[in-house]
Design a protein that fits this description.
Elements: E1 62-63, H1 64-70, H2 76-84, E2 88-90, E3 93-94, E4 101-102, E5 108-110, E6 113-114, E7 122-127, H3 143-146, E8 156-157, E9 166-172, H4 175-182, E10 190-196, H5 202-210, E11 212-214, E12 217-219, E13 223-227, E14 230-238, H6 244-252, E15 257-265, E16 268-269, E17 278-280, H7 283-290
Parallel strand pairs: 9-15
Antiparallel strand pairs: 1-4, 2-3, 2-5, 5-6, 7-9, 7-17, 8-9, 10-14, 10-15, 11-12, 13-14, 15-16
Length: about 290
């Protein structure tokens, strides 16, 4: 069942702590980012050569066999067998030691494929202006602030929307879905509503529709047309994960993009998601996404 990231009373919802009242991001109140404090560690001059990665010693580390089992590959007992036979690597190194512990941020692979012990989550955000699409903590207000309470799983945005662009942005920790979106041969369709600084000439509309070359490189879109017969508003469908191609096309044709709004990703729309809010995808929406 989907959950909204905000409501009319200005509260955010999700799996985070909702005991204190928080402001609705849809009303332009961005969360106050807490600056992370880091402690400096004394660097050691001596180096040890080892065939296995350095053991994790922090409290959030878990046993490697549990990590593998939680990812859905097999049982913990079978995980011990796979580890012993050298099928599991941690940060690029084969680990065969029983009881070895890893951190959540480590890169663990089974038979060459990266695995993740967290529950797969899928969050759809209706992004407002003024938020950067990045996981960096040093870029001011980011989309990660908006979905902070959506799930404890470490989700990331698929693709990008510019800081001043708005609309749908999908977050997940499902690597297979990410690969499906970023596959250069297939990709996933996204529909944008664009507003231009002047009317788009019919000859330019036809040029975009048919495809054309820019600096020797062919530029193609899936679909393009006027919106409600308004010549300065265009609906355009692309499979690119970013929106750079939109700037490329209209800069070349001498139009300025006044507004960029992603209104649909595959079968997912903005229905019932106010600007600045999010929802968890339903089971049906997830299953459809996996069949793309």
């Amino acid at each position: 069942m989907s959950r909204q990231g905000g409501n009319d009373k200005g509260k955010t919802s999700g799996r985070g702590n909702n005991t204190s009242k928080s402001k609705s991001y849809a009303r332009g109140n961005a969360p106050i980012k807490k600056q992370a404090t880091t402690s400096k560690k004394t660097a050691t001059t001596s180096k040890k050569t080892s065939a296995t990665p350095k053991k994790a010693s922090n409290s959030d580390a878990i046993r490697l066999n549990k990590y593998v089992a939680n990812s859905g590959i097999c049982s913990r007992r079978d995980a011990d067998v796979h580890i012993a036979t050298g099928l599991v690597t941690v940060n690029g190194k084969v680990v065969t030691e029983m009881g070895y512990k890893v951190k959540m941020e480590d890169e663990v692979r089974y038979d060459g494929a990266r695995i993740n012990p967290e529950k797969k989550e899928y969050v759809l955000l209706n992004k407002p202006k003024g938020f950067a699409t990045t996981t960096s903590e040093y870029k001011g207000r980011t989309v990660m602030d908006l979905v902070a309470n959506a799930t404890p799983s470490r989700i990331k945005p698929i693709g990008r929307l510019g800081r001043n662009s708005t609309g749908l942005l999908l977050f997940t920790n499902d690597e297979k879905i990410v690969e499906r979106f970023t596959n250069s041969n297939k990709g996933v369709e996204r529909l944008f509503h664009l507003e231009l600084d002047k009317n788009l000439k019919l000859e330019d509309l036809k040029k975009i529709r048919e495809g054309f070359k820019i600096e020797g490189k062919m530029v193609n879109v899936e679909e393009v047309d006027y919106v409600d017969n308004k010549k300065n508003e265009v609906g355009i469908k692309i499979k690119n994960t970013g929106n750079t191609i939109l700037h490329t096309i209209f800069d070349y044709l001498k139009y300025e993009l006044v507004r960029i709004d992603c209104v649909q990703i595959a079968h997912l729309t903005k229905k019932d998601i106010p600007r600045g809010n999010w929802k968890l995808l339903t089971e049906q929406e997830i299953n459809t996404l996996k069949m793309l």
